[in-house]
């Protein structure tokens, strides 16, 4: 997930480590906190694979005339995606299997880069995510039904709250799916093929 997000951000523009970490925090939201201890090893792996290159600053070059006081002599290393990195990123955004939607964290990152994803792939990912969440909803419903007599009312309310959250996600995904289909229709393109296993929304 981290390396995918790094490639996606660098695909938009070169960045130095601090800016990259800040942008990753926005992309990943509250899913996880990115430390330099995880960011730089990931960048090192991407560089070793040939997906990222670095622009090392010249430590002996004079500072710009407008540099603020006490500016450090060492500039920032800028990371740039390579042609191979762009190919790898496009390969990743073309994947529409369970790895793209079963994990909520990776699904969120994939959604953040949907503008780089083909319409039919976007639809398959959204439908796959909806199926996953619907399975979770059915599991929660069964759990609430079985445990209704054994749980105190506070624990039961907590489970109901979780069920309501899942219901909202199913409705949200259904709205996104409908929007994708309408956009395909309005563009005059052939509508993306729908997975035959996609169930009719029940929530």
UniProtKB/TrEMBL annotation:
GO terms for molecular function: DNA binding. Transmembrane segments: none annotated. Keywords: DNA-binding. The keyword DNA-binding applies. It holds the Pfam family PadR. Residues 6-90 form the Transcription regulator PadR N-terminal domain. InterPro entries: Metal_resp_DNA-bind_regulator, Tscrpt_reg_PadR_N, WH-like_DNA-bd_sf, WH_DNA-bd_sf. This is DNA-binding transcriptional regulator, PadR family. The lineage of its organism: Bacteria, Bacillati, Actinomycetota, Actinomycetes, Geodermatophilales.
């Amino acid at each position: 997930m981290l390396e995918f997000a790094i490639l996606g951000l660098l695909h938009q523009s070169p960045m130095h480590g601090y800016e990259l970490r800040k942008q990753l925090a926005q992309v990943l939201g509250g899913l996880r906190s990115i430390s330099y201890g995880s960011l730089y090893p990931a960048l090192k792996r991407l560089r070793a694979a040939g997906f990222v290159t670095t622009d090392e600053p010249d430590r002996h070059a004079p500072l710009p005339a407008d540099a603020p006081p006490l500016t450090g002599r060492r500039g920032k290393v800028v990371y740039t995606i390579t042609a191979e990195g762009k190919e790898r990123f496009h390969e990743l955004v073309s994947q529409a299997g369970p790895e793209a939607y079963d994990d909520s964290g990776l699904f969120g990152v994939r959604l953040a880069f949907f503008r780089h994803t083909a319409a039919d792939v976007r639809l398959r990912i959204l439908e796959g995510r909806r199926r996953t969440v619907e399975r979770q909803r059915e599991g929660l419903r069964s759990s609430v039904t079985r445990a209704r007599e054994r749980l105190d009312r506070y624990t039961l309310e907590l489970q109901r709250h979780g069920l309501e959250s899942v219901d909202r996600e199913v409705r949200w995904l259904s709205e996104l799916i409908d929007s994708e289909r309408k956009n395909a229709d309005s563009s005059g393109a052939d509508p993306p093929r729908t997975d035959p296993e996609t169930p009719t929304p029940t929530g």
